[in-house]
Design goal:
Chain lengths: 464, 187
Amino acid sequence: MPAGPGWGPPLPPPPPKDDIITGVFRAHWMIIPLQIIAVTLVFVALIGPILVMFGFAWVLFMALAVLFGSFAYALPSWWYGTFGLREDHLVVHTGLVLRSAREIPLSRLQAVDVVQPLLMQVFGMAELRVELAGGDGSAIRLRCLPKDVAERMRAAVLAHAAGLPGRAPQAPEWPFYRLPFPLLLGALTFRVPILVSFILLLMLATAFVVFLEPGVLGAVVPLALGLLRYYWGPLARYTDFYASLSSDGLRLRYGMFQRRMQTVPPGRVQAVRIVEPMLWRALGVARVEATVAGYAGARQGDSADLLPVAPRSKAFTLVNEVFPGSDAAMVPLVADRTRSVGAAGVDERLFVSVRGVFCRVTEIVPVERMQTLRLSAGPIARLRGRVTVDVDTPPGPVAARASDRGAVEGRRFLDALADAGRRARVPSAGTERWATRATMHVETGQGKHPVEEAEVSPGDTPET
Amino acid sequence: METSESTPETETESETGSTSVERPLDAAFAAPEGLLWRRIPPALAWYRRLVTTAGCLAAGVGGGVLLLMWGRPLWAGAWAALALVVAAGTWFLAGRFQRSWGYTEAPAELYLTYGVFVRQLVVVPYGRMQVVDVTTDLLEQALGIATVRVRTAASTADARVVGLPLADAVKLRDRLAARSESFSTGL
C-alpha cells in the first residue's frame, strides 16, 4: 500500500465534530500522560530500590530521563495511531517503529462493542471493538477514544455495515428487557453449586471459629475464589442489564465497574441456546447464550450471554427476534430412544434439540446457518442400532445434536436437515448490508411484535 | 445428476445406494438418493500400512533392544510379539478403512463417509466451504495420492477426502472451489 492517507507525516487536524465519516481520528490525548505516568511508576518501583544504593539524586535523574523518554515515544505514537472511515472501509494505522495499516471491509463485521472499564469511565473514555469473523486475532480494538467519538463511530460503522450512508442517524430502538437487580441476585444465588458452596463455606467458617483450626482455611480459599468467579463475577457484570432491539440489531448495555454496550447486527447470531439450571426451572427463568462468529477464544465467555437471567417466555421471544420469521417453541420435537428428556426436531426454519436431566439445555440453530451435518455411530451405538446427528456451528457455546436415534430415523433426520438447509440457503439470504436487502427488510419488519410496535413514537420508523 | 456425469473418473469399486435391502444401519450410511459412493483406490490402504508398519517396527525393535540390554529377554520377546500383532491388526484394518471411505457430490452438498469403529457420514454444503486445499506428503507423493481438505467456519468438523489420485484430487478441488463460489451465501 504505497500512498494512503495517514502515511505521510503531516496529518490534517480533526475536522469539526459532526462529521465522523470523513477525516482522521485518534485516541484521547489523556492517553499520553497516563502512559507516561504508568511507565515511570513501574520504572521507579522496579529499578528504584537498586538505584537508591547510588544515592537519591540518581533515582531522580533516571526517573526524569524515563519520563522524557516515554513522552518522546508516546506523543508521536499517539499522533500517528489514527483511524478513519474510507467509503465503507475502516482504516486503522498503528505503530511507530513498525507501521501497520489495516483496512477492514465493514460489510463483514460481526459485532460492535463499546467498552468502558472503570478507569476509562473516570476520564470519559471508551474502547471500540469491531469483531470480525476471523477469530481471536482479528478483532479491531480502538482503545481510549473520547466517549462521543466512540459512540458516533459505532453508529457510523453500523450504518456502513448496513449499507446506509455513514451520516445516517443512529437507528431507533425499542426497549426489550430490563433485568431487575433482585431477580439477578436471586437467580444467581438460587443455583445448586452456589448454594452448596455457601453452605460449605459457612460450615467451614463455623468449624474455624469453634475449633480454631487454621487448616480449615485451606478449603476456604478455593471455595471463596470459586464463588468470586461464578457468583460475584456475573453479579457485577450484569448489574443494570438492559436489552433493546433496533433495526441494526440487538443492543445490550450492562456492567457495574465495566460498562459495556454490545451491538449484534441481524443475521450475525449463528446459534442460540437456552440454559435452565434445575432450580431456575422452579422460578421459570432461563439464560440465553449465543454463538457469534466474531466472539472467538477468550472473549467467547465474556460476550456469549444475550440474556443473563430472564423469564422463560422472554427468552423464547428473544430467540424469535434473533431468528425472524420462525418460532422456536412451535418446532415439533421427537423424543429420543432413551427414556430421558432428550428430544430434537426440525422445521423449515430451525433445528431445535433439548437435552439434560438436571440442567436443561435447549439448542436452536437456524437451518441456513448450519455448517456441516454429521451422522455418526460408535461401536456400542452400532450394536444398539443407534446413531447421532450432529449439527456443526462456528466455535461457541452451542453444540446442537440429536443423539440416540434409530438408524432409519437418524438418516431421515439428516436428510430433512440437509433439505431444509438447501432451501433456506438461497443467495439472497446473505447478511451483508442488511438495510438495503429486500429479504432482510421484510423479515425484520415481520419479526417485530405488536406490543413493541405500540411503544414506538410515531416518528421512529424502523428503516429509512 | 450433473456432477456424477461431468467427471469420468476411474472408480475402483462402487455399490448401490439405499435401494438394496440391507441392515437399517447400512441404509443409514448409504449414499444420497440416486447417487453412488465414489470409492478410494487401494493406494490409501498401502499408505496406511507402510506408516503403521514402520511405526510398529521402530517401536518393536527399539523397545525390544532396550529390554534386552536391561536383561529381560522374555519381556523383549513379548514386546516384539505385541508389536507384530499390532502391525498385523493395522495391516488388516487398513484395507477395511480404505474400503469404508467414500464420497459423492450431490447437487448442493458434498457427502463423505468413513470410519471402521466410528462410522461417520458428513454432509458439507458447497455454500459453506471457506477453504478447499490439496495436501500431499512425501510418502503420498511416492504413491501418487493426495488429500483434499475442506474447511468450514465450524472448526469441529474435519471434512477431507483422503487417498485420491493426484489428478482427481486437483480436479475435485477445482470443482469444489467453483461451486463454493457459486453457492456462497456468506457466513
